[in-house]
Write a structure and sequence with these properties.
Blueprint: H1 2-11, H2 13-30, E1 35-41, E2 43-59, E3 62-66, E4 71-73, E5 83-84, E6 89-94, H3 103-150, H4 155-198, E7 211-214, E8 219-224, E9 230-232, E10 237-242, E11 247-254, H5 255-258, E12 266-270, E13 278-293, E14 299-309, E15 324-341, E16 346-348, E17 351-358, E18 361-372, E19 376-381, E20 388-391, E21 403-405
Parallel strand pairs: 1-21
Antiparallel strand pairs: 1-20, 2-11, 2-15, 3-10, 4-6, 4-9, 5-8, 6-7, 8-10, 11-14, 12-13, 12-15, 13-14, 15-19, 16-17, 17-18, 18-19
Helix pairs in contact: 3-4
Length: 407
């Protein structure tokens, strides 16, 4: 047997070498190769669970200055950012100017003046007639009095004369009142003609007194609604004032996240322009939500969360009304937490598991997970500190499979 092998080796050495090489390559090719992996050591470190959303600052007490009456507002001299004092006159409102009369209306106004003048003359003539009748009644009453004493006339005739005195006196007073009414009507007709014609360029008298509009607080002008002079109606907004030194932050969060936030919860404000984040505290969560369209076109139910600054005022005094901030609400925090990357976890038997590297082999471990923030997860059971776990395990990693650390 040995002799035949030796003869074959001597006669066909190349064939034997090639065959051995092929067999070796086949064995090497089908031999299980270690999976290249990345490992991360489980470690203890601080862990914070937060909700992050964009927000903006706003003045706590904002006052909208409105027109108290109908009129013409004067040109606004204040600008945004100007300081105002409580009781300071911000602007004035003058009464509305009369409507300009067209030729037809002017002719009607002149006719009304003429009619009022004629009515006044008629009232004056009636007053003179009533006065004459009253004087005649008094003379007649005086003439009948001696006759009554002598018994020439009856007492009924004398009483009728006395009644006539009272009647004519009342008629005289009524006629005098009619004269006054006619004078007022003439004055009103003249006013219509005079002041409405004055709108076309004449000046009938001194301008009407302006109604001052004052500031209710010490603060600054936040918004100027009307800059130019023009007519305003009662309730029209003119400008807004407030105190920028008293700010709050409004953040709209998803309604599912809003139920996790509580009043008094700590919040950090980042990316506001300063080097260090500002601290704050949640004051209230509004009980009413609203619908908002996200950047992807999805309808979301969101809720406003109002927070106050707790950092010293000198740190955020450069922040004004409507500034953008990024709010980070602290839901949970511990300084010493055993944690692994969240990317090392995978689902296994309705729970969570990780692959732990032991003697260059991957071993599956069922773990109990606590808090998670999207990047790392708290490990309550299953992994010890400093143990190497596989990060981003793929389908090639199996329980007991040889693994090799990526260089």
């Amino acid at each position: 047997m040995n002799m035949s092998l030796n003869l074959t080796w001597r006669k066909h050495p190349v064939i034997i070498i090639v065959s051995l090489l092929i067999v070796s390559l086949l064995i090497w090719g089908f031999w299980p190769q270690p999976v290249i992996i990345e490992t991360v050591a489980a470690k203890r470190a601080p862990l914070t669970i937060t909700i992050e959303e964009e927000g903006r600052t706003r003045v706590v007490d904002r006052y909208v200055i409105s027109a108290p009456v109908d009129g013409v507002a004067c040109r606004q001299q204040l600008e945004v950012g100007d300081t105002v004092k409580q009781g300071q006159v911000l602007l004035g409102i003058t009464p509305m100017e009369s409507q300009v009369l067209d030729p037809r209306s002017r002719a009607q106004a002149k006719a009304q003046v003429a009619a009022a003048e004629s009515a006044l003359h008629a009232a004056e003539q009636q007053a003179e007639a009533a006065e004459a009748a009253a004087e005649l009644a008094v003379i007649e009453h005086k003439r009948l009095k001696p006759l009554l004493e002598k018994g020439v006339i009856s007492s009924d005739a004398f009483d009728k004369a006395a009644t006539e005195v009272q009647t004519t006196a009342a008629a005289k007073r009524s006629a005098d009142y009619n004269v006054e009414v006619a004078r007022y009507e003439l004055q009103a007709a003249n006013s219509v003609l005079q002041y409405r014609t004055a709108s076309a360029g004449s000046n009938p008298g001194e301008p009407a007194e302006r109604i001052p509009v004052v500031s209710p607080i010490d603060g600054k002008v936040l918004k100027v609604v009307r800059e130019c002079e023009g007519p305003v109606r009662t309730g029209d907004s003119l400008l807004e004032v407030g105190d920028p030194g008293v700010l709050e932050v409004e953040v709209d969060v998803l309604s599912a996240d809003a139920v996790k936030i509580k009043p008094g919860m700590k919040v950090l404000f980042e990316r506001w322009g300063g080097e260090q984040p500002l601290e704050g505290v949640v004051r209230t969560i509004e009980p009413v939500g609203f619908t908002k369209i996200s950047a992807l076109g999805v309808e979301e139910q969101r809720v406003l969360v109002i927070s106050d600054f707790t950092s010293p005022a000198e740190q955020w005094q450069r922040v004004g009304d409507g500034y953008r901030v990024e709010a980070k609400f602290i839901l949970w925090h511990e300084d010493d937490v055993l944690q692994v990357p969240a990317s090392s976890l995978f689902r296994y038997q309705q729970g969570w598991a990780v692959f732990v590297v032991e003697n260059h082999h991957a071993k599956r471990r069922v773990v109990k997970v606590g808090q998670r923030n999207g990047l790392v997860a708290q490990i309550l059971e299953g992994v010890s500190e400093a143990e190497a776990v596989v990060n981003h395990p793929d389908d090639d990693v199996e329980d007991g499979r040889r693994v090799k650390q990526r260089i």
